[in-house]
Structures are given as structure tokens and as C-alpha cells.
Design goal:
Layout (H helix, E strand, L loop, with lengths): L16 E11 L5 E8 L3 E6 L8 E6 L9 E14 L2 E11 L1
Antiparallel strand pairs: 1-2, 1-4, 2-3, 3-6, 4-5, 5-6
Length: 100
């Protein structure tokens, strides 16, 4: 959809796809941790995890879509925002800096 035809509230350069699929992430030098991918776009990702992550942290991620028509995604992201919607739950938004 061209940017000019989007609703006023949507100003992002890339359309986000809603997801609800398993993924994992890894900090440099640390073991992989499970998470759930909530949405994905060409430029970024939003996922849910049970641990806080620092803004600015670089993570290696691996997203495994549940639909067989979509291949897995391996990428590096930089964390832009972390929100805590409930105790023990963190929503992490990151920009994709590299696709493996």
C-alpha cells in the first residue's frame, strides 16, 4: 500500500505484519533465550520475553514463522524500546541492522 493511502495514524515506512510465532534471541556471549515474535516488518521487530533488555543492546534473533510459506529469519537487531505491560513480561522493539 502506498504511504499516501494509509490511515492517518500509520506513519511507518514499512507495514508491520502481525505475528504470533516462536523466536529466540541471543546477547553476545550469552545462551539463546526463547521469546514470541509479535510483529515484524522490513525494518524492525517487536517481541515478548520474560527478561528486561537494555535499550541500545544488540541481539542476534531467529524468528520461526508458523506458516510454511514464510522462511525463518536470522538477523541482528538494535533494541530501541522496552515496555513492561505486566509483571515478568517485556515487549522489546528493535530495528533490524543486518540480515544473516
Amino acid at each position: 500500500m502506498p504511504l499516501g493511502n494509509r490511515p492517518f495514524t500509520e506513519k511507518r515506512a514499512y507495514v508491520r505484519m502481525r505475528m504470533d510465532c516462536p523466536m529466540d534471541y541471543r546477547r553476545e556471549g550469552a545462551p539463546r533465550r526463547p521469546a514470541t515474535c509479535l510483529n515484524l516488518s522490513v525494518g524492525g521487530v517487536l517481541f515478548r520475553t520474560d527478561e528486561p533488555i537494555d535499550v541500545g543492546q544488540r541481539l542476534a534473533i531467529h524468528v520461526t514463522p508458523t506458516l510454511p510459506i514464510s522462511p525463518p529469519l536470522a538477523a541482528t537487531v538494535e533494541v530501541l524500546r522496552v515496555e513492561q505491560p505486566a509483571p515478568g513480561t517485556y515487549h522489546v522493539a528493535g530495528v533490524i541492522t543486518e540480515v544473516a
